[in-house]
Amino acid sequence: MKHETVTGAAAAPMHFEPQAAPKPGYLVIDQLWKVFGDFVALKGVSLDIREGEFVCFLGPSGCGKTTLLRAIAGLDLQSRGSIRQAGRDISSLPPSKRDYGIVFQSYALFPNLTIEKNIAFGLENARRPKQEIQARVAELLALVGLSEQAKKYPAQLSGGQQQRIALARAMAVSPGLLLLDEPLSALDAKVRVHLRHEIKELQRKLGVTTIMVTHDQEEALSMADRIVVMNHGVIEQIGTPTEIYRHPSTLFVADFIGETNQFPARMIRNDTVGLAGTELACASCEVAAGSDVNAVIRPVDIIPHALDGREDIKTPQNLIDVTVTEMEFLGGFWRCRLSSPRLGERVLIADFSINAVRRLGIEKGGAMRAELPQNRVLVFPKAA
Amino acid sequence: MSAVVSALPAGRAPRLQLSSDDVVRRGLMLVIALYLVLALAAPLYVLLSKSMSTYRFDLNAFEIQRSDDSGTAFGPARTVAALNADAKAITDAELDTGSDGRLSLTKLYEDFSFRSPVKYRIRGTTNDAAFLVGSDLKRGTDWVEVDSNTFRRVVLRPGRSVGFDNFVAYFSTPSLAQAIWNSVLMGAISTVLVIAIAFGLAYALNRSRMRFKGLFRLVMTVPILVPSLLPGIALVYLFGNQGLLKGWMMGHSIYGPIGIVIGSVFFTLPHALLIISTSLSVADARHYEAAAALRASKWRTFWTVTVPGARYGVISAAFVVFTMVITDFGLPKVIGGQYNMLAVDIYKQVIGQQNFEMGAVVSVLLIIPAIAAFFVDRIIQKKQVALLSARSVPYEPKPNPGFDWGCFAYCTLIAAFILTMIGVCQLAAMVKFWPYDLTPSLKNFRFDLMDGGGWASYYNSIEMALLTAVFGTIIVFTGAYMVEKSDGFRAGRSLFQFLAMLPMAVPGMVLGLAYIFFFNNPANPLHALYGSMAILVICTITHFYTVSHLTALTALKQMDREFEPVAASLKQPFHKLFFRVTLPVCLPAILDISIYLFVNAMTTVSAVVFLYSTQTQLASVAVLNMDDAGDVAPAAAMGMMIFYTNIAARLIHAAVSRVLLSRTQVWRGR
Ligand SMILES: Nc1ncnc2c1ncn2[C@@H]1O[C@H](COP(=O)(O)OP(=O)(O)O)[C@@H](O)[C@H]1O
Ligand SMILES: [Mg+2]
């Protein structure tokens, strides 16, 4: 059942092909810099978020995701650069003059107010009639499925329930932008997967433009329409989950999203790369011949064949005869360590399905043939 | 650093537009910072400058011309110094003076007569030289012409110079310098004793399974509820000239070092116990298990595990106790006899001899150890936090009948000491004439028949304590909130934080004296406060600001830092968050602050003793004054009134806390 959710989310980006985007430029971040003392946390970040989009900021801890989010919220003012939301320059507006709801990792629920009062907190001024407030609170409680808990205090709820209340409170005033800072990281694994689905559903139902910060790639891949991969205060790549996964534009992105085999290599032609003891055809790229590069292939992209080659191979390219030195069963698949004289000292890690392992009789110590499909062999220039 | 910052593109950093909330918050912080500047920084500055100021008439700074009998032809201008060289009318000793010094000039002229038609012209030779014509202040180098009659009313004003002359004078007066030695000696002896006793108590309370721990803890806090004068009075009754147990003294007098030490042990014990107890209670069971596994003897375990673990607490407590002893004024005043201590010295210099500059000098000397103690304590607090944050397993003592009974006996002994001191005062207050006529009587409570302000002083004290508790809590909590929960404005916030920590390092006597200098200056627009109830309240709030501030900060720090951003994103003003969430959640801390301020306002003597007026006499000061006048039994009775009041306040506080908390803190329980 959870699998359905993931595929659903992965399919969602199709709606947001650039031409189909309903309204580009809802949130436009231009050359944002942020320094803390002599530490540069953001280095010229530019970003354009469309209306109704679900965007994840993804990156390792300390890369500046929260800093960027807090700049958007007006909680930590940027050192340079501008932010426009819905056509309005909000670069120097205080938080209270901006239009967003926010959910923090800690949820920040008011401990001495009931769930009901927490949600009503943002509704209470504006001389709104009591009934209207009550109705809205009831509506929100129903939306997050916690109508029964209205009179309880936050401490009486589970983490996942608190998280949903925080979401309801943020959405109560119907903000144009929803900001979530690692909203799921304080929860245990099971609740987390469940809530991913719920938050995504809620977002789709309300159509609110949403930015979520996370360091969990699975979370980002399964929820986001577009992912902003960040590292050391710069944006490495912006793209849909499939783009990011299949066409990482930097070695960092390739390495951070999913798993990789990396080999130091040298470019021979624009579609051939030389490894320790072999040449591989690779996705064509613009790297000059003769320069040092990293050749990257994901374990899941390696195709297993039997040695006798009875298996029909459409494009007999990048075939390496290997010995299986180790096998580890990881539940859904087998992780195999493959070695070959053609790879020198390096081992190739490959993930094979249970099915393939059975069919091909792959076993520890046995020999087999591995195919590294040309378009899955990615080449990145060595960092200077 | 500049290299990195130059990595930034050119251009200006955007400036956050202030929201109306920010404006209100900064405004409030400014108001409270201003309060601290006026109630603390400015008076201390004036005190310091007073201690460094010396005043002397500079005869070279003035010139005089004198006319003949016609009043039109003036002679040559001569400096007053030159005139005096001829006349020898003004001696050198007369030139040293105070800030109010005035020097008349008529004696320079042997033949001076106020009826004479001779006229005088006078001017300064520098722009600073000042003199008075009647009450008219003249300054500068313009000639002022007066007739002989007016010349009688011309007086020179001294010049002020800044330097350490006052300190030199102080240290070259043997009897005064002796006070420093005496204070240090008393501080050292009392500290060693108190630390030893308190460590034993803390050890018994934390490491044994004896019974009645709660009761013992309660008894050990009793000294906090009475003025430090009271143990002095108790000692007089026990060991004084007509004392019950005078024989125990074996010919020594209780008036002096012995009395000071015993009394100091009494009133500093709760503070030392609290600090050491805290440091012992964070002990890590794993160390004890390791020691047991190594078959270390009990004694070795004690010295290698327990003592090092508590060392920060012990050092911290030692500094606190030392500072309390040398800065306390009430106890040595009552029991010190001829034994001169620094704090009493300030009192004598100022109240007895009106020598304000010397009082300021002693004050500055008193601040030095207090500031040292303050910084040592800060450093130690940091270390102790580090100790705590290492995940430790709390130590659970195991029953050990012999040891437990030993601890019980020890605690009983100390509790008996404390209760005896209070009990003696209670008895003395309730009988006709201790120890000769023991018929019960309330005559000692007829305060209106004695000096010291009567019952009015008691009611004043209650009024003062209530005002201090209410306004102090509001000021302290608001200040702490603004410091903790507003962002930006960094420099302003650190300055505020510094001001809030400062009172900890300022002894009460010093604060009181600084207030005299600052507020009792007619040129100060706040002069009207002098002698009012308000100044007593302000002084007391300021005196006890730091501990209250830290209590409030601790409570506020436990609140989620994201409440403010959430409220702002929901477009709610900060005051709504403050009253709906912050205040209710911090209610326990707020109640603690108010009772702390109330109790201390009831018992404090040292600061307010300089500031009360006939309309605003206070109970604690009345104890002092009645004792001074020889009405020792009524003094004891008034001391007991303070004690009863504080107990009642504590009970009310407990009851109110319980009701309020049960109503507002339901959310705490699951
Ligand atoms: N207020 C601050 N002062 C100094 N450094 C900060 C501050 N806030 C964040 N940083 C630093 O900026 C970097 C990025 O932080 P952050 O945006 O919180 O990272 P993350 O991507 O994990 O959310 C970190 O190295 C962090 O130490
Ligand atoms: Mg973060």
TrEMBL record, chain B:
Please name the InterPro entries in this protein's record: AminoethylPonate_ABC_perm-1, MetI-like, MetI-like_sf
Q: What is its main location?
A: membrane
List UniProt keywords, sorted A-Z.
Membrane, Transmembrane, Transmembrane helix, Transport
**Pfam families per the UniProt record, alphabetical:** BPD_transp_1
Q: Where in the cell is it found?
A: Cell membrane
Coiled-coil region(s): none
Membrane topology classification:
Multi-pass membrane protein
The ABC transmembrane type-1 domain sits at 180-377, 458-653
Q: Where are the transmembrane segments?
A: 28-48, 162-181, 187-206, 218-240, 260-282, 302-326, 358-376, 407-431, 464-483, 495-518, 530-556, 577-599, 641-661
Q: Which PROSITE patterns match?
A: ABC_TM1
Gene3D superfamilies noted in UniProt: MetI-like (1.10.3720.10)
> Which family is this sequence assigned to?
Belongs to the binding-protein-dependent transport system permease family.
This chain belongs to the protein called: 2-aminoethylphosphonate ABC transporter permease subunit
